[in-house]
Structures are given as C-alpha cells and as structure tokens.
Design brief:
By secondary structure, the protein is an alpha+beta fold. It has a domain of 135 residues: CNF1/YfiH-like putative cysteine hydrolases (4-Layer Sandwich). It has 5 helices and 12 strands. The protein has a 6-stranded mixed beta sheet. It is globular. The chain binds zinc ion. Zinc ion binds next to loops.
C-alpha cells in the first residue's frame, strides 16, 4: 500500500494492476497495490502488508479465506477505513469477518486535540476518549479500532497489546521520530480457520 491516511480499500489479486518494487534477488516478488489504506484479497498466492509506526495495523480474516490488511490512524478511522475494509471483505465473499489489532500507540502516550477527540467520540462513543500518563486528553486508538470493527459488523480477536511509543522494541514516529516501520503481513491458509 502507498498509505495516505484515507479510507480507500483495494481488492488485490495476482493478476491485478500493481507496480513492481525492487526485489533484489528475493524469491518473493514485492509489488505496490496503489494509494490506499486497506487491502483485501482472496488469493492465497498473495501476502498483504501494512507499515506502521504508531498507527494501528489490523489483520482481517474470514472462514472463506478472504483476508485483509488495514492501516488506521485517526484520520483513517474518522473516514471509516475499517468499516470500508470489512465491507470489501464481504463484497469479496467473506461472511464472518474477524479482526486483530497489531502494536500501536496507546492512550497514555497519545496527546490528542480536544476538537478532533470530540469528533471521534461523536462517531464511536466516549470509550475512545483517554488520558495520557501526564493527564492530558488522549485518543484511545485501540478502543477506536474496536468500535470501528463493531460498527463494521466484524468480531475482534486477540492481537498484540503493546504501545509502540513506550513498550520498547517498536518504531514510534510520535515518541522518537523513528523512520523505521513495523510490518504486519497477512496471508491466508485457504480458509476454515479465521
Ligand atoms: Zn505508551
């Protein structure tokens, strides 16, 4: 994905339009799907990836073998990227969609403007309103993703509960201006076990 903090979700198949990335002799061909913040596929020959350093990465699965990867910062969440990805999963043949959250910045480390916080609380409820460890207004990104999965009609399953800013071992744009990124890779074993 060429991630743009939007809500566009693309459906990817091996024959689809993609831009090759330098593969440097690896056996796996790396390709870019285009400008989007969600990818959905039913093609078991593909693995989808999302890169983050504080934003939420979300893996989506289904019994039908349709799977997805989502990049969700607060702008994407406000734009409905999670719900759009779940809808794209259904349009591609998934019935019960399950989502799992990767490491992201937690409320304790996520100073957030009260105006934008009010907008997100209006959309997803007061559960998204958090407090930083210093007592300032914060966005609870995890709670926002959970609410968005529910809003989309998906079920949430356990992911990785770690704060990228303070847990150690993760890249954080906000805490350290890190230029590195976590990669979440999502693929399908063909279905049945979502
Ligand atoms: Zn933290």
């Amino acid at each position: 994905m060429d991630q743009v903090h939007g809500s566009i979700v693309l459906v990817s198949a091996a024959g689809g339009p993609r831009r090759p990335l330098p593969s440097e002799g690896r056996e796996v061909e790396a390709v870019q799907a285009g400008s989007c913040d969600g990818l959905v596929s039913a093609d078991p020959s593909l693995a989808l990836s999302v890169l983050t350093a504080d934003c939420a990465s979300i893996a989506l699965g289904s019994p039908e073998g349709v799977f997805g990867a989502v990049h969700a910062g607060w702008r994407g969440l406000a734009g409905g990227v999670v719900e759009a990805a779940v809808a794209a999963m259904r349009a591609t043949g998934a019935t019960g969609v399950v989502g799992a959250l990767g490491p992201c910045i937690h409320a304790g480390c996520y100073d957030f403007s009260e105006g934008d916080l009010g907008d997100l609380a209006g959309a997803y409820g007061q559960g998204v309103v958090g407090t930083t460890t210093a007592g300032r207004p914060a966005l609870d990104l995890r709670a926002t993703v959970s609410a968005a999965l529910v809003a989309g009609g998906a079920r949430e399953t356990a992911g990785i509960d770690a704060c990228t800013a303070c847990a150690g071992g993760y890249f954080s744009h906000r805490a350290r201006r890190d230029t590195g990124r976590q990669a979440m890779i999502v693929w399908s074993d063909g279905g049945a076990e979502a």
